[in-house]
Amino acid sequence: MHDDRRLTEVRLDRFLRDRIGPAVYPRSVPLTLSSWDAPDEPVPAGAVAFPSKVVDSEYGGRTMDITVETDGTRLHARMAAGESGSWARSLQSGENVRAVFVPGDGRMFAPEPTVAGSGV
Question: Using an 8 Å Cβ cutoff, are 57 and 66 in contact?
């Protein structure tokens, strides 16, 4: 029997990239954010900062998946977990934090993706 595993994987990757990927798109959701001035704490150029409350944080090995809420809108972030005992690993549900991100780096996703042409 021939081992065509690598050839099959390459074909599957190409199919996913060329056919499936372009047909799947997230539903857009309205998002309203307002800026927050923190005169004692600098915000990097091009970034925005706003007060938030931690809803959930989960350790994933090298990363932390963090969900914060601000004005009824939930934002999800993945960041480097850092060393044991780092501030990212010590986040607790209900904790007040300042969320900072560069808008151009953000991605909008609805809870359920929609497949183009499927009506789903």
Answer: yes
pLDDT, average across residues 91-106: 81
For the chain, the DSSP string reads ----HHHHHHHHHHHIIIIIHHHEEPPP----------TTS---TT-EEEEEEEEEEEE-SSEEEEEEEETTEEEEEEEE--STT-TGGG--TT-EEEEEE-GGG-----SS-EETTT--
Tokens at 35, concatenated:
């800026």
Instruction: For 51-70, write each residue's pLDDT tens digit.
Output: 888 888 888 778 888 888 88
Assigned CATH for 38-111: 2.40.50.100
Parse the chain into domains and list their residue ranges: 38-111
Q: Flag whether pLDDT at 87 surpasses 80.
A: no
Q: What percent of the chain has pLDDT over 70?
A: 74
CA 95/CA 13 separation, integer angstroms: 41
Tokens standing for residue 71: 């004005």
Q: And the tokens for 90?
A: 């010590």
